[in-house]
UniProtKB/TrEMBL annotation:
This is ABC transporter ATP-binding protein. Belongs to the ABC transporter superfamily. Lipid exporter (TC 3.A.1.106) family. PANTHER family: ATP-BINDING CASSETTE SUB-FAMILY B, HAEMOLYSIN SECRETION ATP-BINDING PROTEIN. The keyword Kinase does not apply. It holds the Pfam family ABC_tran. Its main location: membrane. It comes from Oerskovia douganii.
Length: 672
């Protein structure tokens, strides 16, 4: 029986070598990324900035040489004959020339230094402009809506946005700082060369290796801290949210009325400490002992070089000029290993936000559906839009929002979609707009699968206003004009859209008419009531129709209008959208009864479809809900209540009885 050969554990040497290679590769990748960003600022400007930084790196070396020469000439001039002697005059002339050149070099350096800061700022802002454009394209154009709801993507997006909100270093600062490092490294190389020539090659090698070793260690520690900082992105996003909540006006009314300030203050403090205490502890752990070790390296390396300088001077191998140059040149590498305020944080953390942007772009690209063929040209629907067996849910662990929905939207017809809250009405609109893709089934436009159409071209065919439409803090004309950007300067078209939506009289009465900013946060600005804002949103959709859209989709378009205004709007709406494929989402049954077709959705399916007369005669779900809403108004009228915004005139059913019966939680529509 023989013993097996002993198994030795792997040595630490290969692991350390592999780790060193990984660190070097990461740093090389960082500098490559920065170099690729710089051309976005303009090649001529970058070339001029590089030349300026090289010059700023060489000027201190020239100053060192000239000062050393001045020190060399002073004893000679002092020992020379008087002013009448020729050699004395020549010595004074050389001394004054060298001193004048030294002063001139110093002055040029001081004059050029502000230009370095100015050029760096211009480069940084141009690079940031490029990156912001990429971020806007990725988030507002390329990203599927479901991808923007993933926590990982939101963390990356928050990291990238924080840089451009100046809550962190932006990529432009990192790219511009690369040029600032150029001046530092030119100084280092020049100083090492001077020490090697004046003292000895060995002294030059030792002082250069010492500077690079300390520099490598300092940046390595900073890189480890950056990795730890990255792991806290989710915590910082919570802090940013609470900070905005605590210092903004969005929640000011509720915080004041509910007395939430003590809670907000305590929560902001606790979450801030939870986000930053791990960073502080990690920073102490990463920097304390490594900094002691690096200080020791600097002490040993500097001492060795100074001993070599002293030995050369003592043995007579250095004259006063060479000794002056050597002592000054040694100080540059000794200072090189320290933290660079103009470059280190910028290149480390500015690039961090750029990497967040690139990772976000890659995630978005992988989440986008792959198109197997060239997109089919988009045109105005001539036959209609059909939902066939459409099923959809927002994630694999959530209930089905749409479950086998079949629906036809006739071209040139008005279709009303009604149902209780959570039935899937808004989700249906999101699928129609291709903000999401059906989990199962398909949507056909004139027989062509919607997924085969170009997304942008199809979305331009839609004049769509969601119930949570955006209230832009812009002028009234711009709030309407954004419905069709090509008509932003067409005041006649904007006024016509406002008139059709019943908003023109209100907007014309503002201090500056349609040019009034719709926000009290600006001088001369005014805010509108909920119903007035809704008319502005409707005008935006109607302008989009004039701008070329062919499918009008309104999601709860009159929820904040009183019932008479709502009835008036629908009469005007049906008259002005003739031959337009229109879809109106509502849970009010009375005000949509003049639509060509009405579809009732429940549990993610169309359970009834027809016009108002047919559905009432059918005696099904539509008839029950219609009667339920009417009965609620009769009961209200019987006790003498004054109809509010959601009440109907006598003899009309109340259009706001969506809460007439409870909706099971499982039916509630996720994120709609």
């Amino acid at each position: 029986m023989t013993d097996d050969p002993p198994v030795h554990p792997p040595t630490a040497g290969p692991r350390r070598t592999s780790a060193l290679r990984a660190v070097l590769a990461a740093r090389a990748s960082r500098w490559t990324d920065l170099a690729q960003l710089l051309p976005q600022a303009g090649r001529p400007l970058v070339a001029a900035a590089a030349l300026l930084n090289v010059l700023l790196g060489l000027l201190p070396l020239a100053f060192i040489v000239l000062v050393g020469y001045v020190l060399y000439l002073v004893p000679q001039v002092a020992a020379s004959p008087g002013a009448d002697g020729g050699s004395g005059q020549a010595g004074w002339s050389d001394l004054l020339t060298a001193l004048g050149l030294a002063v001139g070099v110093f002055v040029v350096q001081q004059v050029l230094a502000p230009f370095q800061a100015g050029v760096t700022e211009v480069i940084a802002r141009r690079v940031d402009e490029h990156c912001i454009d990429r971020l806007m394209t990725a988030a507002l154009h390329d990203a599927p809506l479901d991808a923007l709801q993933q926590p990982e993507a939101l963390d990356l997006l928050a990291e990238a946005r924080a840089a451009f909100a100046r809550q962190a270093r932006p990529p432009g600062d990192a790219a511009a700082a690369l040029l600032s490092l150029l001046a530092r490294y030119v100084q280092l190389v020049g100083a090492v060369v001077l020490v090697g020539i004046v003292v000895s090659p060995l002294a030059g090698i030792v002082i250069g290796a010492t500077a690079l070793a300390i520099r490598f260690g300092v940046r390595g520690t900073l890189g480890k801290f950056a990795d730890m900082w990255d792991s806290l992105a989710g915590s910082r996003r919570k802090v940013f949210y609470l900070r905005d909540l605590a210092t903004g006006s969005r929640a000011a009314k509720e915080i004041r009325l509910l007395g939430l300030l003590p809670w907000v203050r305590a929560r902001l403090r606790s979450d801030t400490m939870a986000a930053y205490e791990p960073a502080w502890a990690g920073s102490r752990k990463l920097q304390f002992w490594p900094m002691i070790g690096l200080s020791g390296v600097g002490l040993v390396g500097g001492a060795v070089v100074l001993v070599l300088v002293a030995d050369a001077a003592a043995s007579g191998r250095l004259n006063l000029f060479e000794l002056g140059v050597a002592l000054q040149a040694v100080l540059i590498p000794m200072r090189f290993g320290v933290y660079f305020p103009e470059a280190d944080v910028q290149t480390q953390f500015g690039l961090h936000s750029y990497h967040a942007l690139r990772t976000f772009e890659r995630q978005i690209a992988s989440a986008r559906p792959v198109r197997s063929a060239a997109p089919v040209p988009v045109r105005r629907p001539e036959q209609g839009i059909r939902f066939e067996g459409v099923r959809f849910r927002y994630s694999d662990d959530t209930p089905w929002v749409l479950d086998g929905l079949d629906l036809e939207l006739g071209a040139g017809q008005s279709t009303a979609i009604v149902g209780l809250n959570g039935a899937g009405k808004t989700t249906l609109v999101k699928l129609l707009a291709r903000l999401y893709e059906p989990t199962e089934g398909r949507i056909l436009v004139d027989g062509v699968d919607l997924r085969e159409l170009d997304t942008q071209d199809w979305q331009r065919q839609l004049a769509l206003i969601f119930q949570d439409y955006v209230r832009y803090e812009l002028s009234a004309a711009e709030n309407i004009g954004l419905g069709a950007p090509a008509l932003l300067d067409d005041r006649e078209a904007i006024e016509a859209a406002a008139r059709k939506a019943g908003a023109l009289d209100v907007l014309s009465g503002l201090p500056q008419g349609l040019d009034t900013t719709l926000s009290r946060r600006y001088p001369g600005g005014r805010d509108l009531s909920g119903g007035q804002w809704q008319r502005v949103a409707l005008a935006r959709a109607l302008l989009a129709i004039r701008g070329g859209s062919s499918v009008l989709v309104l999601d709860e378009p009159t929820a904040q209008l009183d019932v008479r205004a709502e009835a008036e709007f629908f009469d005007r709406f049906l008259a002005t959208t003739e031959n337009i494929t229109s879809v109106v989402i509502s849970h009010r049954f009375s005000t949509v009864r003049h639509a060509d077709r009405i579809a009732v959705i429940e549990h993610g399916r169309v359970i009834e479809c027809g016009d108002h007369v047919e559905l009432v005669a059918l005696g099904g779900r539509y008839a029950d809900l219609f009667e339920l809403q009417a009965q609620r108004f009769r009961d209200t009228a019987a006790v003498g209540a004054v109809p509010g915004p959601h009440a109907a005139p006598q003899g009309e059913p109340d259009p706001a009885a969506d809460a007439a019966e409870p909706v099971p939680a499982a039916q509630k529509e996720n994120a709609s």
